[in-house]
């Protein structure tokens, strides 16, 4: 099969390798769309502790069932499917508490198993057992189905901070994740969503995704504007949807008393520390939360929201590329004009 292999950091090679083998309790999926995530870009540039190169990335996937293991029932060749990423063990202390994103034995497609930057992808038995392979209807594109994976992570973040009716929300960083947060916050009952970014080019884009007020924080005083928009109280919820330490620090100046903050983006490993006024947390009784990954339940919920049309993701797919153009696709994914860039290993019929 044809595939894009990360041979070494910064070097993704389009090449041909053997087709993946189908395990008795697994599947093989013909990949029709594999979207490029910010995490893929980080791994491309900096690597990952779970990954030994050369390796096949791609954890936002959708396609059709191409092969079925001898011990698998309930599937047929040609079934249209979306494929999730993270597989908790369901046996450790944290899984037994229902905290699957903290699983001590997590496995993941694109991390422990080859990902979807390829014509075919083997689905391990664990993924089937977890419910990470889900059927999708004919009227949903494969690229749209691939967005269920990042949406599931956004769901996890908003469940952790208890986004609810009446919230006034500030989202710092209006890339794919920030825009997904805006859409989901509105669907959960937020009455005002304020998006902030340093790029003026984001102003027209974010209006599509449920943002009521856009603030270019490179040109305006973000704290002053947020206070004006919230009657001087600050936001009930602040989501930092970017990997910028200064944004995490500033979040404490944007939140009201008893408000909630979500640090959604991880910081670079060589600059993981920030300076925070802990008196704000203490005296204003502010809650600060991290959010990472998602559970199979959240992945299934994300896909249900997309299939039902409650969360519309078609506008997120700004660019598509054939697999052989992986280098150009990665360059586009790093540009500010893109949201979600999808690889399509097979020509459209």
UniProtKB/TrEMBL annotation:
It comes from the Bacteria. It holds the Pfam family ADH_N. PROSITE patterns: ADH_ZINC. Keywords: Metal-binding, Oxidoreductase, Zinc. One of its GO terms (molecular function) is zinc ion binding. Gene3D superfamilies: Medium-chain alcohol dehydrogenases, catalytic domain, NAD(P)-binding Rossmann-like Domain. Residues 7-343 form the Enoyl reductase (ER) domain. Its cofactor is Zn(2+). Belongs to the zinc-containing alcohol dehydrogenase family. This is L-iditol 2-dehydrogenase. It comes from Candidatus Hakubella thermalkaliphila.
């Amino acid at each position: 099969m044809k595939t894009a292999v990360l041979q070494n950091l910064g070097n993704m090679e389009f090449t041909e390798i053997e087709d993946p083998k189908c395990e008795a309790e697994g599947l093989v999926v013909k990949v029709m769309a594999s979207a490029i995530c910010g995490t893929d870009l980080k791994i491309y540039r900096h690597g990952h502790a779970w990954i030994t190169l050369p390796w096949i990335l791609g954890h936002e996937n959708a396609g059709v069932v191409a092969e079925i293991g001898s011990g698998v029932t309930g599937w047929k060749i040609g079934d249209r499917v979306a494929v999730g990423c993270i597989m908790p063990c369901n046996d450790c202390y944290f899984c037994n508490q229902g905290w699957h994103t903290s699983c001590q034995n997590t496995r993941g497609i694109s991390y422990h198993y080859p990902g979807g930057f390829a014509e075919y992808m083997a689905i391990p038995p664990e993924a089937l057992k977890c419910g990470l392979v889900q059927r999708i209807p004919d009227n949903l594109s494969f690229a749209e189905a691939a967005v269920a994976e990042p949406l599931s992570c956004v769901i996890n973040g908003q469940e952790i901070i208890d986004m609810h009716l009446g919230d006034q929300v500030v989202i710092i960083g209006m890339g794919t994740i920030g825009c997904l947060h805006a859409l989901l916050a509105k669907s959960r009952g937020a009455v005002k969503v304020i998006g902030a970014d340093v790029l003026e080019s984001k102003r027209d884009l974010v209006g599509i995704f449920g943002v009521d007020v856009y603030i270019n924080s490179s040109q305006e005083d973000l704290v002053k504007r947020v206070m004006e928009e919230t009657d001087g109280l600050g936001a009930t919820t602040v989501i930092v949807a970017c990997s910028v330490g200064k944004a995490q620090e500033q979040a404490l100046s944007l939140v009201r008393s008893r408000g909630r903050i979500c640090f959604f983006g991880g910081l670079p490993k060589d600059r993981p520390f920030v300076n925070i006024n802990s008196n704000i947390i203490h005296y204003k009784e502010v809650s600060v939360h991290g959010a990472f990954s998602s559970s199979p339940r959240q992945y299934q919920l994300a896909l249900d929201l997309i299939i039902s049309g409650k969360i519309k993701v078609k506008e997120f797919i700004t660019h598509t590329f054939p697999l052989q153009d992986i280098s150009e696709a990665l360059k586009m994914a790093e540009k500010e004009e893109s949201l979600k860039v999808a690889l399509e290993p097979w020509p459209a019929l």
